[in-house]
Amino acid sequence: MEKSILFLKEFALFIKSSKTGRRRMPSGKKITKGTLTQYQCVQNLIRDFECNQKLVLRIVPLKKSSARLIQKERLYWKNIIKSLLQYLYRDRGCYDNYVSGVLKVIKSFFRYIEIEKSIYVGAFYKAFRVPSEVFTPITLTPDQLRFLICDRLFENSLTGSLKNIKDIFVFGCTVGLRFGDLMKLKQTNLQKINEQYILIANTQKTRVQIRINLPNYAIEILKRHRKNSKKYLLPRISNTNFNIQVKNLARKAGWDYYSPKIRHKLGKPIEIKIGKNETYRFYHHITSHSMRRTAITSLLMLGLEEHIVRKISGHAPGSKEFYRYVSISDRKSTRLNSS
């Protein structure tokens, strides 16, 4: 029998290979910083799990092994995953979405060992159960977005800083870029062709160039802020500060109705409370990512073809996450047509 491999030692090499670019995504692109952060979180989690369980995880190469040894290894990892799930759910109070992410990383690690390191470890890892959680993105309705764009009385009631937040938010809800890409937009990203202003940008995550025809209200936003910066199109602000202030904006807009936050644990829906057992309100859910979600839904409702919207959003063909937006836009369109 070949010498066993220490899980965490090999996992550190998995992270290093992903970080240096030796291991890449199937498309050939480098692993993103966000994914590397997930890997490091799982590494820390497994380290804590080993300490909690007083064990050291190992992997046994199974090339030329007997059926008995293969079965023994399968049962070993079946019990390990069972204990890991109990640890995550019972001891750490995790929800399905988080547990799903952990198991997906572990499965990616086993695929790396088998495919890129050419070490046969058995196909049992493919059966690791990944809990599924149906997540419905929070988006603004067309009426809510129209209110932010058109209501001058509301705009005049805002402080200067909240006016800036509103402008960024409305622009983001229009173009669908990630917050980081919005903050990097420069004057050179805006072009005027045949009296039409066009935003041309390369997205950081997908590295795809997008071209978006800007409506008049979006152009007015950019013109308002042109005098304050000769370099950037929009006011500069950190993501953390933006998320705090955009909630204040949504609350001032009157969107303080109850909107429970639901997470699932072993498939069972559980309401997450805020503060001292207080139910979430709609404005609590509004973040920088709400801009992108609203834009995707709005573009689909306007009848833009799905492959064009996917190019803007960066979702892959067949993406389950993208088709949640398709479902939302269909429901909203149905309500609008019936009203």
Describe the structure.
By secondary structure, the protein is mostly helical. Helix content is 54%, strand content 9%. The protein contains 13 helices and seven strands. It has helices spanning 7-20, 33-53, 67-91, 96-116, 142-150, 152-156, 160-175, 179-183, 216-226, 239-252, 288-301, 306-313, 320-338, and strands spanning 5-6, 58-59, 190-193, 196-202, 209-213, 261-265, 268-272. The strands form three sheets. It has a three-stranded antiparallel sheet with strand order 3-4-5, with no helix packed on it. The protein has a two-stranded antiparallel ribbon with strand order 1-2. A two-stranded antiparallel ribbon has the order 6-7. The chain is elongated, with a radius of gyration of 24 Å.
Summary?
The chain has 13 helices and 7 strands.
Furnish the topology, listing elements before pairings.
Elements (H helix, E strand, L loop, with lengths): L4 E2 H14 L12 H21 L4 E2 L7 H25 L4 H21 L25 H9 L1 H5 L3 H16 L3 H5 L6 E4 L2 E7 L6 E5 L2 H11 L12 H14 L8 E5 L2 E5 L15 H14 L4 H8 L6 H19 L1
Antiparallel strand pairs: 1-2, 3-4, 4-5, 6-7
Identify the notable features of this structure and list them briefly.
disordered C terminus; 13 helices; three-stranded antiparallel β-sheet; two-stranded antiparallel ribbon; mainly alpha; 339 residues
Counted by DSSP, the helix tally is: 13
Q: Could you give a short account of the major beta sheet?
A: 3 strands, antiparallel
Gyration radius (Cα, Å) is: 24 Å
- How many angstroms separate the termini? 70 Å
Helix content: 40-55%
Structural class: mainly alpha
The spatial strand order of the largest sheet comes to: 3-4-5
Q: What is the beta-strand fraction?
A: 5-15%
Low-confidence stretches: 325-330, 332-339
Globally, the shape reads elongated
Integer average pLDDT: 87
SSE pattern, N- to C-terminal: EHHEHHHHHHEEEHHEEHHH
**Annotation, overall tally of beta strands:** 7
